[in-house]
Amino acid sequence: MLTAFDKKLLNVLQAGLPISSRPFADLAQGLESDEKTVLSRVKELKEQGYLRRIGPFFDSAKMGYRGTLVALRVRPEAMKSVAEAVNRHVGVTHNYEREGRYNLWFTLLTPNEEMRRRILAEIRALPGVEALLNLASHKKYKVNVQFKLG
């Protein structure tokens, strides 16, 4: 169960971390707490699944990367092993099991088309993968979603 403090902490984390040598100490100050408490709560919230990741967002296109959304049809008994194999690729940023004919979706960022083709060929050849759709992006849409916890 989230405490009032946890909700405040999650709200400020969604807005971003201060760029400083002690960002969690800076957050703690704004939350009228201390760095040790903030770090402890962040660790616990991550372990409980409330936090997936804390890290920067980069403009991948400016860095020369292109993205694609990939849909896989995976036999249910192979789902875990396929998802783990997909996650081992550095350029995979999201990977989710879904209901429906295509039941595993992920995004992939690569610096060039050759690397994208090679990675997708490796994934297509995994045991249990029945089909792969490569839905390459042509235009970037950035949606900033923040959940206001009250």
From TrEMBL:
Residue ranges occupied by any Siroheme decarboxylase AsnC-like ligand binding domain in the UniProt entry = 62-142
Q: Which UniProt keywords apply?
A: Lyase
E.C. number:
4.1.1.111
Q: Which SUPFAM superfamilies does the record cross-reference, listed alphabetically?
A: Winged helix' DNA-binding domain (SSF46785)
One GO molecular function term of this record is: lyase activity
Q: What does the record give as its pathway?
A: Porphyrin-containing compound metabolism
Where is each Siroheme decarboxylase NirL-like HTH domain found?
6-52
Pfam family name, one? AsnC_trans_reg2
Catalytic activity as recorded in UniProt: siroheme + 2 H(+) = 12,18-didecarboxysiroheme + 2 CO2
Among PANTHER family, the record links this protein to:
SIROHEME DECARBOXYLASE NIRL SUBUNIT, TRANSCRIPTIONAL REGULATOR, ASNC FAMILY
Hey, which family's this protein in?
Answer: Belongs to the Ahb/Nir family.
Its recorded name reads: siroheme decarboxylase
